């Protein structure tokens, strides 16, 4: 098996495995108040049709575009040779963090440009903004050019930073988890943005706000670029508003 093929297989199966439990949560909705209390936009519950739309768009992209490019890669790219030495935990952490920081910077710039240029937005990024309230399957509702761009960075950044293949696989799965967490639509108290201190990570509250107010929170993972460039907007929960509407 070649390196690229394994990485894409890992990425797509991680998207499926990580998204499925949150899709179940969305389908249960108000029937599970213990979880529904954390829904960021409770008045915008995704329907089964919306979920199917997002999921099949992601599946179509992978079958029609990603899979053929992987097949071509099998003939072009060298077969994977795993180094004899495994990386230390410290190496996995430092190299993995470097990959995430680099990707975060690349996507911040790309994302900012694609929101400022109306034609680029319309043809490349608008697909991802079909829904104002994200849900797990919508994580990979991307146009082909956007998927190819993030795919290229995900593949090339670890090569550029000379990561061990094990580090690359780990950071691939971890970054998919972070992307899914951005889109779950719930502000759960145990997600990474709450576990990592000082608000270093944006998580679902920041990215949900980006889908509500698209000229804010451009960074996919970390908060620093949005703070530095003044594009950080805190999440406003409309939970209370909904409750008062219901009772009145
Ligand atoms: Zn998004
Ligand atoms: Zn956007």
Automatic annotation (TrEMBL):
One of its GO terms (molecular function) is oxidoreductase activity. The chain crosses the membrane at residues 6-29, 59-80, 92-113. Residues 1-19 form the signal peptide. InterPro entries: Fatty_acid_hydroxylase, Sterol_Desaturase_Related. Residues 97-231 form the Fatty acid hydroxylase domain. One of its GO terms (biological process) is lipid biosynthetic process. Keywords: Membrane, Signal, Transmembrane, Transmembrane helix. GO terms for cellular component: membrane. It is found in: Membrane. PANTHER family: STEROL DESATURASE (PTHR11863). This is Cholesterol 25-hydroxylase 1, member 1. The lineage of its organism: Eukaryota, Metazoa, Chordata, Craniata, Vertebrata.
């Amino acid at each position: 098996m070649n390196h690229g093929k394994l990485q894409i297989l890992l990425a797509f199966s991680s998207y499926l495995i990580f998204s499925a439990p949150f899709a179940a949560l969305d389908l249960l909705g108000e029937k599970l108040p213990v979880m529904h209390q954390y829904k960021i936009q409770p008045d915008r519950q995704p329907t089964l049709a919306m979920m199917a739309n997002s999921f099949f768009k992601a599946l179509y992209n992978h079958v029609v575009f990603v899979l053929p490019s992987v097949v071509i890669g099998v003939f072009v790219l060298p077969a994977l040779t795993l180094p004899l030495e495994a990386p230390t935990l410290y190496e996995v952490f430092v190299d993995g963090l470097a990959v995430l920081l680099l990707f975060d910077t690349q996507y911040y710039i790309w994302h900012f440009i694609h929101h400022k240029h109306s034609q680029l937005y319309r043809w490349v990024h608008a697909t991802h903004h079909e829904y104002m309230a994200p849900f797990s399957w919508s994580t990979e509702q991307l146009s082909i050019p956007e998927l190819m761009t993030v795919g290229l960075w995900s593949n090339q950044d670890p090569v550029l930073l000379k990561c061990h293949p094990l580090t690359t696989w780990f950071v691939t799965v971890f970054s998919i988890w972070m992307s899914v967490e951005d889109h779950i639509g719930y502000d759960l108290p145990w997600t990474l943005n709450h576990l990592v201190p000082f608000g270093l990570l944006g998580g679902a509250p920041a990215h949900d706000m980006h889908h509500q107010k698209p000229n804010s929170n451009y960074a996919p993972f970390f908060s620093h670029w949005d703070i530095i460039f003044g594009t950080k907007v805190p999440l406003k929960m409309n939970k209370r508003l909904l409750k008062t509407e219901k009772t009145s």
